[in-house]
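Before a computer can learn anything about folding, someone has to put a protein's shape into writing. The outcome of that step, for a single protein, is printed below:
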Amino acid sequence: MVQKNDFKLIKCGNLIDCTGNAPVKNGAILLESSKIKSIGHESNVIPPEGASIKVYDYSKYTVMPGMVDCHTHNNGFGDGRLGEELNLLADEILTLQSIRNLRASLFSGVTTIRENGPKNFTLINLKKASNDYMVLTPRMLICGRPLSIIGGHMGYFGSEVTGIDEVRAETRNLIKQGADYIKITATGGSTQTSFRYRHSFNLDELNAITSEARKFGKLTATHCVSTQGIVNSIKSDVDMIIHCMFNEPDGSNKFRPEIVDDLFNKGTYINPTLHVVRATIWDLLNIKERIGLTGSQEKLLDDRKRDFDIHLNNCTKMIDSGLKFITGSDSSWSSYQSGNTVYETECLNMAGLSNMASLLSVTKEAAKSLDIDDLVGTLEIGKEADLLVLNSNPLEDISNLWDVKDVFLAGRYIDRGSEKSLKSIRQLRPSLN
């Protein structure tokens, strides 16, 4: 029996389903509750006879799938503070900040996020609240907490482990607590007690984690800012490598084509997090414009500009080699604020992805990398009705992803608030270069 208001008809001036097919002019999508019932040219999308239909007329706009951000840190503030500083805040404060960040992402058109490392149970509990409709968030995939060695990157958030027995036990514990996948810090990082350019877990430990995760059908992702971390991740069959930076133990960068070949043969997804480096550059440029920089800040600015250029160039080489790149912002880590995922997609476009490939990196390919492409990432019959309505066409200019008109989550129209509040989400470029 057809229920009143069960159906919505979305009229689309330009329909991009992100399956890889050409856009459809004068398209339409019929929604039944949270699902896509029918999709195609408007002449072929016919509502059930006698059904009550709510019509949304976007005949002058572009409609595409909601974006999928494969890498977020929702405990953060995006104001440059270190993870150690976040760890000093009460879990309740971090939970409230996470709600703010998740709403900013949703309002910007991101309808699915993967959380890559919160403190304690903050995101585990928040996901439960979201599933019970207590708070409005994008759909969420969570790691619970990142796995770290003692003193390793992000270990302060609650899962420092040593040895095969402990890593297996904590992997099982995270899965018991509700982890959708396992995040592993395979090298050091910005954490002050870690060794940034050295691998952290030994290979036998890493193998124990990934084999345990696979046993329970869970994906794995490794934080890697050194070459040895990448090599170990390949050997242990990690599903996604984050950052993927070719740094030697002394901090020098040496691109390794033979490792890229191994990544290609394994089919490993790459999440390069380019903009999080650029966000620090922008933060320093804003400080420079306001009050000037100290000598140490000027050096940091020069170092980060060099790091960004090297990483961008390496990403271009990896893209040319056929590696699978996806959009994962790394917001709100460091100086990268939530709700600004598109900056990362723009960086992938700068690195060499075409406009279509860039768009797929934040829709279809992103969903595939998270093993949720049966639910989201493309607009197809039977999938969740997560829709992004744009004022302009991202296939003409990928930056048009910023030009959001409306968002639907699971068939529900999202009230995003006032234009003034929406403008405050956008993290503006500095005027200095």
